[in-house]
Design a protein that fits this description.
A six-stranded mixed beta sheet has the order 9-8-11-7-13-12, with no helix packed on it. Strands 2-5-3 form a three-stranded mixed beta sheet. It starts with a helix and ends with a strand. The chain is 30% helix and 27% strand. By secondary structure, the protein is an alpha+beta fold. It is built from five helices and 13 strands. β8 and β9 form a beta hairpin. The chain has two domains: 63 residues, Trypsin Inhibitor V, Chain A (2-Layer Sandwich); 101 residues, 2-Layer Sandwich (Trypsin Inhibitor V, Chain A). The relative contact order is 0.11.
Amino acid sequence: MAFGSFRKKLFGPVVYWNIIAMLLVGIALFIGLNVWMTKYTMHGESVEVPDVNGMMMGDAEYALDRLQLVAVVIDSTYVREQPAGIVLEQKPSSGSRVKSGREIYLTVNRKQKPTNIIPDIAGNCSRREAEARLRALGFKIGPMKFVPGDPDWVIALKVNGREVYTGERVPCDVPIVLVVGNSTQRSREDIGEIGDSSDFEFIDGETDGLEYYEEEL
């Protein structure tokens, strides 16, 4: 009698409905999880990265935002010929296909000219060492000026015709003129023996009427 009662309950409609309900809940959970995963990973969805090089930063952000892409500035540099705030480089490059929400890394043109401190060079370096140290700091090297002194030894530094000193901060994009010693004291005839005199500009010396020159690099 007890076994028959248990059998009726085991195969009764309540058990069937519970099983059906569990199956429906399982199917609903599976569908919901699949939809969430598809949306989260944006499976199969991609957009083409637009070309924002040459755009002002605000315009680049707007163009990327329209495609659900995120503009991120990772670096800045200074290019005199370009306006401040313009995009100089982008990664990924234009034409690449990426998922929505991807960050696009931008390099923009900074507003201020880069400057650096003049190192201890004058009276302390040879010409080659001075050039290497200045270039390593981002400076440009202009034409050299030769004056009486120890050969190939840097006597002074000049920027825009003005002598600059150790510790002074100057713009990196303005050429630095190295004033270098030249004990040979070459004349126009000396230069003519070496090569074409059009490569040199003669200037009047200040000692014994000798003539010195500036060499264009």
